[in-house]
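Case study 2.
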Amino acid sequence: MSSAQNKSTNAQTATSNSPTRATPRSIFVSGGATGIGKAVATKFLDAGWVVGAYDIDDEHLQQFQSEYPQLIIGHLDVTDAAQWEDALADFTAHTDGTLTVLDNNAGVIGFGDITEQDPDLIAAQVSINCTGVTLGARAAHQYLKKTPGAHLVNMGSASSIYGQPHIVPYSASKFYVQGFSQALDLEWENDDIRVVNIMPLWAKTKLSSGDAQSIKRLGVHLTPEQVADKIWQAVHPSHGLTRRRIMYSVGLPSLLLRYAARFAPSIAVRFMNKLIAQ
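Prediction:
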């Protein structure tokens, strides 16, 4: 065999033995500058994932990146479809155009009776909590469908178990998230994208800083890290039956309330929620 032929054979052998570069596991977190979003981003960063935290809070994003230089950050108003498109294109430029998990985390709450809440705050709750989640899913679909084991994680709430007074627009918006998650899980099944809805009670974030009666009755016991742990569990289903699960309560009280609402008589559920929230 000539020297040139030998070099060619060696090159072919080296190419055939070279490992295929694996698609990086990645998660994009909206509202990722603080609170639960930051806890989720941190959880996945510590596990070696490629993580993007996007938010309107540029100052806290910069602080977060100073703690984790590998973190990818960017500005995102979730109510703007064009910004979603740009943010996801920016992030997936670091992940070979794929996305393992979109965490639709951004949200806002208003406290007080519906007649006392500012109209702009009411509109913001619907726009951010409902439209923002929908636009995020729409923009992420093209990247998720290219990734085996892809997940859309929607941040719901235990307030969607039964409508909650004094946080009415917020509670109603989380009913939207629940229905949206159920419907989209069916719609995207053929694309092998699993959709889940995370339903915590009050967690120790700015969203629980109001004076809702349910905060006083139930207390604020969950940490953002516990919610992040539940999201990690949700996107790592252990078997086929788990992959069909959509709703994830966080903490035993949330789980008990959800199952009580499912199996107890409706009049009993109403009375229980009246005791909690009035």
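The radius of gyration is 22 Å.
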